[in-house]
Amino acid sequence: MGVSLNSKGQFVQFQKIYRDKYFVDKSQILSILNEALDTSGCYICITRPRRFGKTVMTNLITSYYAKGLDSKEIFEHLQIAGSPEYEKHLNQHNVISMYMSDIPEECKDYGDYIRFHSRRIKRELKSTFSQCQIELEDSLWEMLEMIYGETGERFIFIIDEWDSIFHNDMFTEQDCSSYLQFLKNLLKDRPYVELAYMTGILPIRKYSSGSELNMFDEFYFPTDSIYDTYFGFTQEEVKELCERNQRSGGNISYEQLSEWYNGYYTFHGEKLYNPRSVNKAFTQNRVKDYWTETGPGTEILYLVQKNVAAVRDEMVRMVSGEQIYFSEDDFVTDVEPLESREEIFSAMVIYGFLSYYKSCLSIPNKEIMKKFQRVLRDKSMGYIAELVKNSEAMLQATLAGDTDKMEQILEYVHDTEIPILQYNDENSLSCIVNLIYLNARDRYRIEREEKSGKGFVDFIFYPYDKSRPGIILELKKNKSPEAAIEQIKEKNYAARFQVLQDGSREYTGKVLAVGMNYDSQKKIHSCRVEELAAGARQASI
To answer: What is the distance between the alpha carbons of residues 83 and 442, in angstroms, rounded to a whole number?
Structure first.
């Protein structure tokens, strides 16, 4: 056993994961891999967004297959133990693990980088197969060919973050080409390869336009129908984790997790959650944005900045809660140079910033919504950023019942002549509401067109801090704000505020009814705000 060959270190890491209070059994992936062993389908590349469990899975796979390990103590308690092939492959294979994100100390160039990864494996091969006529000066594939020829020993390759070199400014385009050739020489058409399992973020075809790695089957977000449930937590898994959390005295609810981390889908439509964020919420006993802890907060801005105009308006619609049509034929795997709408949105899906299901794109959850909100505030968003600047003033004016200020802000929005807001119907007004109340999302959970009382209300603002007022907002065109307020009363929309979201007790804070109307003849907005008191009492502000 070594660092790269039949790694004990990976087994130690998997033991830690297994002992975790919120461990989820994903071992059935091994049944699929067992079927792929030593077949034409033994080349597998799985790409997923950051923090979707790729490295956890490589630790599991190595711990199951690697010779010299005794992992039965764990796997006999996992689902894979029920497979007919379970014992046949348990700790019976040579596994070579390669973590391509590792950079050697004082790495000056690609030569240092690739020698570091090759030399470590070659030293362990020479030590383990000392009876073979191999030398450290031999290339890695020459050594493996000789070992196979003399002993018949074959190998499983686990290559994690295989695409790291393409994200590192240290390496040139020529270096990347040399790296692809290295992987081809190591893996393609080699008799010693039993299985080659690679993970990364972006698909192979983004980097390789030729035939270097065309032997791999690619499984990428969101078109993977084979491995889709093994990366991310399913809805049932999250519900079970919530029960575990509550049994141990935790107070994280399923509804909270669903709001913050849900919104992705398997190929067949099952809901998926970001696993790292769910785990962090349990261990820290708090739901919040954990994604930005693992990378820069400007990633979405980087994806759109080369052609803001191509996607800006549709981004606003998605922030407003709408879905955007995006055909599966629109997906591109070679997303460079990030100039077209198709390239930018495809990259957002692959990186996990957008969810894709049934030919529609949407912002998956509150965790990702917060990243989009930051982007809309950036000056590169042009008129959108200017409108967002007014969102704090709009919220404060609403809470204060300052309808003059509210109407002033709405007139500014109208005068901006936003292309996507043509004022053809109330949906256009809905887009405006989402822009001018963007800052409110930090303090309210905003729902659109929710069934409430005797009908459907345009917007309900549920306060996270129950001491804040709740807000019911109704939109009208060519009527009056008073008519909107009257509808709120007649339909009893305030019924949603009689209990908290967890149903535990009555909501005792005040509720504001907000009516907005747009007069298409006079080209003006008018607003009214009233407080809806408990019972039948309703006091005008």
So the answer is: 48
